[in-house]
Amino acid sequence: MKNYLVITLGTREIQLLRDALSPNGFEHITEVSGNRTLSWVQPVDQPALRVSARYNKEFPDVYTLTPRPDGRIILDNWTLFRPIIDWPLIRPALTYLKEKGVRLDVIMLVFTDQEEAHQAGRVKKRENVDNDTVYFADIIEKLIREDTYFDTAEIDPFGRYEAVTDMGVQYEEFARIKADLLYADDVQAVYLFPQGGIDQINQALTLRLIETFEGRVIYLQKAEGSEVQALTFPARFVDTLAAKAIRKHLIDLDFDAITESMHSNPAIFHKASYATKRLNLQYDELVETISEAEKIVDLYLAMKIRFQKQRKYNEFLWRAHTLNEVLFKTTVEQIMGPVHAYFNSAYGKNDQNPGWEAKLTETHPDLPAYLRKKKVSINNPNRWAYKSIYIFLCNNGLLTDPQMAVRKRIGDKLELLAGKRNAAQHGLGSITHGEVNAILGGNKQDYTADDLFSQLDQIFAVNGFGLYDTIKSEIEALI
Q: Which end of the chain is more exposed for a tag (fewer CB within 10 A), N or C?
């Protein structure tokens, strides 16, 4: 009877020890390329053999790599790089089995290799191919072979080449391929360690193994900062596994990532779907009616989530732009009533819009002249007009807003972001957290994104992430 260990490989399996660099003749360098700062580790006397060095403040002692290109360099120069390499995610699982006296017959390393699919056009993003773990599998095999305890184990790299994020495809592939493993009659235990890799591969493999070997499947788990634990699979394992992924998505308030097939409790998906639709402003797909004030808060929270939780700064930009378009509009409409009907795209910047000008005059006889004095075109309702009208109404006693000073400053700051948003949209550019702060800070650098969100929380009376913190808690209670 044979013991199997199945490991799925992820992008953080091989790491570089920062403290080991200098003693072993390596150095860390950075380069500025456009708006990006690139980070590298290279041998001092062979700088051509440099590899990328990704820093994560949660793991300050190491650098992670770009698996395909860096893995190839390390593999081809193994003796040179070995002293600075660590594999802290997989090594503890092997140590655990060794300490338990488990003799492994087969170690299966599940990796991805999408190069051929990319060349054929089936995988569009080169980034996905660069994150393939094909060379990490060879590196892990070398590291395993350093311990003679595993000399008798057959190491069996197993590649996934197509549709790596399609759980259905992977589920079928794990049934058809490797039948000698998945349907072998001499299996004593299958130790499964799916800490790394792609969720869909991990879940498909887990489901197939449970279906085939049931209680003989032993799940090895290592949470950050804790020891490896061995868990036998309960009947509700699929839900348990899904719960881990769901919790991760909830941390980021990434409700869109919670799919209907992830958990047997339909209420989880229904709540996540509701949150997704509101954050994406898909109100026509909701049964209930959402007020205009609630819609603006949804827009703001979508913007805040993209920035603070998901670090999707380009998506933050276009939501900030949309918020800028409506920041003063709803307040102005409290006095003027709905004004959208006065918009006519046929009127250019220097044209006259009689209907809109008449509405402005009806609101206050001096309003059109005020807008002209402020060099605001009155051809159409727009964000510049809304802001100036808002200020006029407040200054002339037609509108009372205790938050006037805060709202004006927010409007000024959102307008600063508009140019960057246009550049990112039309030039396929991107923006970073630091760039956002630099733009908002202006010449004095006295204002940051934290200040922006604090003031927006104030005018919208929002605490944290409002409704979406509540939905997160409701889903957590259902897992």
A: N
Among the listed residues 208, 219, 133, the one whose alpha carbon sits nearest the alpha carbon of residue 169: 208
Dihedral sign, CA of 33, 37, 40, 46?
A: positive
The strand order across the sheet containing 36-43 reads 26-33, 36-43, 51-52
Q: For residues 459 and 202, what is the distance between their CA atoms, to the nearest angstrom?
A: 44
| CA gap 467, 305 in Å, rounded | 12
Q: What is the b/e burial string over 295-321, where b = at least 16 CB atoms within 10 angstroms of the residue's CB? A: ebbbbbbbbbbbbbeeeebbbbbbbbb
Distance CA 111, CA 106 (A): 16
In this predicted model, what pLDDT tens digit does every residue of 215-270 receive, in sequence order? 688 889 987 778 998 876 544 666 777 888 899 999 999 999 999 878 878 999 99
Question: What residue segments make up the domains of the chain, in order of their start?
Answer: 1-233, 292-339+381-460
The angle at the Cα of 61, spanning 201 to 223, to the nearest 5 degrees, equals: 40
Q: Which amino acid is at 3?
A: N
Q: What is the pTM of this model?
A: 0.53
Block residue for tokens 């205009």? 292
The segments of the chain whose pLDDT lies below 50 read 234-235, 426
CATH 3.90.930.12 assigned to domain 1-233? The reply is no
CA nearest to 252, candidates 315, 165, 297, 324: 315
Question: String of b and e for 12-36 (b: at least 16 CB within 10 Å)?
Answer: bbbbbbbeebeeeebebeeeeeeee
Joined together, the tokens standing for residue 158 give: 């197993």
Give the tokens for residue 87.
């594999």
Place of tokens 């094909």: 134
CA distance 404 to 223: 48
Q: What is the pLDDT of residue 235?
A: 43
Question: What is the Cα 374 distance to its own chain's centre?
Answer: 42
